[in-house]
Amino acid sequence: MWGGRFANGPSAIMREINASIPFDKALWRQDIAASKAHVDMLAVQGIVTHDDAAQIAGGLDRVAAEYEADGVPENWDLEDIHMTTESRLAELIGPVAGRLHTARSRNDQVATDFRLWVRDAMDQAELGLKQLQVALVGRAGEHADSIMPGFTHLQTAQPVTLGHHLMAYYEMAGRDRSRFADARVRMNRSPLGAAALAGTGFPIDRFRTAEALGFDGPTDNSLDSVSDRDFALDYLMAAAQCSLHLSRLAEEFIIWASQPFGFVTLPDSLSTGSSIMPQKKNPDAAELVRGHSGRIVGCLTSLMITMKGLPLAYSKDMQDDKPPVFEAASLLALSIAAMTGMVAEARFRTERMRAAAELGYATATDLADWLVRQANIPFREAHHITGSAVKLAESRGVALDQLPLGDLQAIDARIDDRVYAALSVDASVASRASHGGTAPNEVRKRVAEARVALGLEETA
Ligand code: ARG
What we know:
Layout: H1 12-18, H2 21-24, H3 28-44, H4 50-70, H5 81-93, H6 106-142, E1 147-152, E2 155-161, H7 162-187, H8 206-212, H9 222-227, H10 230-257, E3 264-265, H11 284-307, H12 322-345, E4 347-348, H13 350-359, H14 364-375, H15 379-396, H16 405-411, H17 419-423, H18 425-431, H19 440-453
Antiparallel strand pairs: 1-2, 3-4
Helix pairs in contact: 3-4, 3-6, 3-8, 4-5, 6-7, 6-10, 6-12, 6-19, 7-10, 10-11, 10-12, 11-12, 14-15
Residues 20, 24, 80, 106-107, 110, 314, 316, 318-319 line the site of arginine (ARG).
């Protein structure tokens, strides 16, 4: 494509290091669409004839049909998807194919194709996360009353409901969705027509190609247009943060599925067995989601470091932008799908959760609060009294509400038998009815609002 200036062809090493076709062939649909929008505009602007444009567009359709049927051929000499398509077009329709590259460069071409690809990836992530939210809300609604231990430091802290716990992940997925949606708004401008870096002398209409490709308009600075990969970084940042959330959810399932916890039975469809230990049912899907998040964060780091310090405008380093984005996108899609299935199909062992909440002195705060409210004791003192009660119960291996009143009164005479009502895990969760609290009625309110937000119901 640049042979005119060169006496000798590239070495084998040059051809290999230069070739992006092994990965950028994934952009073929975007490349064809952008080329068709471009040639249509060239004809409307009188830069090529309508007849030539029609031949080129028809040829591009034929190339697309071949790619669809047989895949994109990988010839390193043709370097990338743009040259592969143009070269095949020339084979099919002859020298008129050479008019397609008027008033553009591969620099604006790849920036356009890649934006289109990333825009789809953002839409897909958003859609996948919505499905995850639907699954979370469904299970949270079922379990608005199911009591489990709530943890801090992974130590039993206060009783919560499983519905409340699941709705925490609904919130995270919602923020992730908004990050993708927000990034999409910011990136939806067309770089096509920025040409190599400085714009073009041909009378192109960048608004027309922008509209044809579903962009809100053209970008406003040609140098920025060909050198900007913020859209890919925005995608990776949103993907990385999302993957952290998925990894945390996966970790919950891994812990809950362990025998000492026994809070959940994982769906067979998302577990594996052991070839040596017949009793094993391993949470491999969840572990891989946890592992994939590390790789996704690595993809973000990779592109950030690629872009760091690049002067304007295009540099070939930027060809390395695609593998991390493609990798992150496929890992993220799989991770979202795996966690959606896990949430939807897991069998929660609510009796085990409840028993664990009753065992771990989870209502100690309720005893302290009761002392504050009923006996007008300052909280710090109440905290101390409660600590003594927990110590006594622990030494006897019983729950707080199994301590006889006499023993409680020996610790502090101001305690009376009304305290038992506050010590049950049910009373504890029901009392936490502050906005966003774990009380079953609060959880039901949040679930109802979420169902409306997700379009599952019209009004709460
Ligand atoms: N394969 C290249 C990439 O992905 C296309 C742009 C090449 N531009 C250039 N001036 N060599 O970045």
